[in-house]
């Protein structure tokens, strides 16, 4: 299976640069994974595809303003730091630009010294481990100095920070939003719950590995970056009760899918707990829990397109993408949505 098997031509103008004012007004392409049949709806119509007794799994991670701009204390040279994941206490794995001269021992000042960082070592793929020092609460300082880490394909300035956050975001820790969830409003979720659909909250802190291109020719040679996840006893109970009663499990986004598939046991039940996952889902994968997926339109040759193809079949997915391009759907993080069922 080659990476090129998941390629398609996407016109640049279809990459959404700004979110819609009304989250639930996005378009929705519905794909039947068995037949490949497609229909076009509006996102708020998602409710008509859910039934009482189903379970919707959402990822309640919260994006942190992880992009910091500082200066090297020794030379005054500008430097940009992107927080990827917290390793321990105040030590973070980061992406540093420019990276070549960001050597161990380099000291960086942010916000006129409100926050300071020292590069400890060079980690995998050139990432840097940085120890931060400050007075007060780190999250509050980050909120003051940091910017939202928008994906590289979004070039417009984000006017409202909250539009790159789901309405149910709770747990700080992501370097990117679980973007399928951006389409939900509190009102729509309340309506879904009122009709008898369970809503299970899980957490997976999204790393930048989600945007990294697959550099190997053979899909099987690609290695996923690990991301931290948490599944509560309540979420596990909701999912397992749904399965036992014959209901369907719908994941909102590939991150929710990867979380429950990582935490599923051999017996097909979801286990409560936390840990790190580098699960890689591609065609041939046998899903233990997932029945349907709500997702955005993804980058060509990305692991996310491979995951959707594992559920619906590569030919069906690429055909749906061709249709979406023909119909001028908006792609990527601020784009339209797709329901696979």
Explain how this protein is built.
This protein has 341 residues and is of the alpha/beta class. It has 2 domains: 3-63 and 160-340, QueA-like, CATH 3.40.1780.10; 67-145, QueA-like (Thrombin, subunit H), CATH 2.40.10.240. It is 18% helix and 28% strand. It is built from 6 helices and 17 strands. The chain has helices at 138-145, 186-194, 233-244, 254-262, 303-312, 314-326; strands at residues 27-31, 38-42, 55-59, 61-63, 67-72, 78-88, 91-97, 107-110, 115-122, 128-134, 171-174, 198-204, 227-231, 249-252, 273-277, 292-296, 337-340. The strands form 3 sheets. Strands 2-1-17-16-14-3-12-13-15 form a 9-stranded mixed sheet. A 6-stranded antiparallel β-barrel has the order 5-6-7-10-9-8. β1 and β2 form a beta hairpin. α5 (303-312) packs across α6 (314-326). The longest helix has 13 residues, at 314-326.
What structural keywords apply?
6 helices; 28% strand; Thrombin, subunit H; 341 residues; 18% helix; nine-stranded mixed sheet; 17 strands; six-stranded antiparallel barrel
In brief:
The protein is of the alpha/beta class.
Structure annotation, total helices:
6
Shape: globular
Query: What's the number of extended β-strand segments?
Result: 17
**CATH hierarchy, class of the largest domain:** Alpha Beta
Secondary-structure map:
Layout: E1 27-31, E2 38-42, E3 55-59, E4 61-63, E5 67-72, E6 78-88, E7 91-97, E8 107-110, E9 115-122, E10 128-134, H1 138-145, E11 171-174, H2 186-194, E12 198-204, E13 227-231, H3 233-244, E14 249-252, H4 254-262, E15 273-277, E16 292-296, H5 303-312, H6 314-326, E17 337-340
Parallel strand pairs: 1-17, 3-12, 3-14, 4-11, 14-16
Antiparallel strand pairs: 1-2, 5-6, 5-8, 6-7, 7-10, 8-9, 9-10, 12-13, 13-15, 16-17
């Amino acid at each position: 299976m080659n990476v090129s098997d998941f390629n398609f031509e996407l016109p640049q103008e279809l990459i959404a640069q700004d979110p819609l004012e009304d989250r639930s007004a996005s378009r929705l392409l519905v794909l039947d994974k068995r037949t490949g049949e497609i229909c076009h709806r509006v996102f708020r119509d998602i409710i008509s595809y859910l039934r009482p007794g189903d379970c919707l799994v959402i990822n309640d991670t919260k994006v942190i303003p992880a992009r910091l701009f500082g200066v090297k204390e020794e030379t005054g040279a500008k430097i940009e730091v992107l927080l990827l994941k917290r390793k321990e206490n105040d030590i973070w794995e980061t992406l540093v630009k420019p990276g070549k001269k960001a050597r161990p021992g380099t000291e960086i000042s942010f916000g006129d010294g409100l926050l300071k960082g020292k590069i400890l070592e060079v980690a995998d793929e050139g990432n840097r481990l940085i120890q931060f020092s400050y007075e007060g609460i780190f999250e509050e300082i980050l909120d003051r100095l940091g910017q939202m880490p928008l994906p590289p394909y979004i070039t417009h300035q984000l006017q409202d920070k909250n539009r790159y956050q789901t309405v149910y975001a709770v747990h700080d820790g992501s370097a990117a939003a679980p973007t399928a969830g951006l389409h939900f409003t509190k009102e729509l979720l309340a309506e879904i719950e009122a009709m008898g659909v369970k809503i299970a909250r899980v957490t997976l802190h999204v790393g930048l590995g989600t945007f990294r291109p697959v550099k190997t020719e053979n899909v099987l040679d690609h290695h996923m970056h690990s991301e931290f996840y948490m599944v509560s006893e309540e979420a596990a109970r909701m999912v397992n009760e749904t399965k036992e009663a014959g209901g369907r499990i719908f994941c909102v986004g590939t991150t929710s899918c990867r979380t429950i598939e990582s935490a599923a046991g051999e017996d097909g039940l979801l286990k409560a707990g936390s840990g790190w996952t580098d699960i890689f889902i591609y065609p041939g994968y046998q899903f233990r829990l997932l029945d349907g997926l709500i997702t955005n339109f993804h980058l060509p040759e990305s692991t996310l397109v491979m995951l959707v193809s594992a559920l619906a079949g590569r030919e069906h997915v690429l055909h749906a993408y061709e249709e979406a391009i023909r119909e001028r759907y908006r792609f990527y993080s601020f784009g339209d949505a797709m329901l696979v069922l």
